[in-house]
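Structural prep section.
Before we set up the soaks we want a predicted structure of the protein with flavin mononucleotide in place, mainly to decide which crystallisation condition to try first. Input record follows.
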Amino acid sequence: MELSEVLRRRRSVRRFDSDRPVPAETIDRILDAALRAPSAGHTQGVTLLALDEPDQVASFWRVCAGEPADTDDSWLRGMRTAPLLVTVWTSKAAYLDRYAEPDKGWTDRDEGRWTAPYWYVDTGMAVLLMLQTVVDEGLGACFFGPPADKTHRLLKEFGVPQGFDLVGVLSVGYRAPDKRSPSLKRGRRTTAEVVHRGQWGNHLA
Ligand SMILES: Cc1cc2nc3c(=O)[nH]c(=O)nc-3n(C[C@H](O)[C@H](O)[C@H](O)COP(=O)(O)O)c2cc1C
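Run finished without errors. Recording the tokens verbatim:
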């Protein structure tokens, strides 16, 4: 698929065909895409934990939301149909360590030096490549944040070592009809609103 078509087609999908698992080689291509992402200082501090066995996916949702019967929340019922979840983790320490190396020299590990916490920025870079690969493979996905107060239990459930922060999760699968997110009522900002040229407030090239 042309990149322009991938960009045009991508949208968040929140309900999936639960009878159709994602083939192993497709999972590999989606996960491998994350490794192509740029990263600050080439730290590559983003780590993925993919859950594609039904019992693994069920464990994830049990920790985050209880048993399936516990909900009449249609968002949750839709998301629970995803046969693949990719949980996305970052390590702040990996970035502070990398930038303390001689070529960077930030040996004080002072977070005030960072224009933005690149340990989070890099997860966005990796996630977007996965989202685009999902579209290229003919599937759908949604990036979402699980409840923050459940992340310590996810760490324990899946044996994630201390020092890794959960940034978000991608639900992935073959698309089923879903409801339009209410957030989309906000509309898409126009180029004139988003882009300034040469001087803030100037919108002409
Ligand atoms: C950082 C981030 C967090 C998000 N969290 C959620 C979420 O918790 N639940 C959800 O349904 N969608 C979530 N989304 C998806 C957005 O709602 C969606 O991207 C936005 O409404 C635009 O719609 P589109 O992706 O279909 O273009 C998230 C997206 C991003 C980038």
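Observations: The chain has a mean pLDDT of 96.
Flagged for discussion at group meeting.
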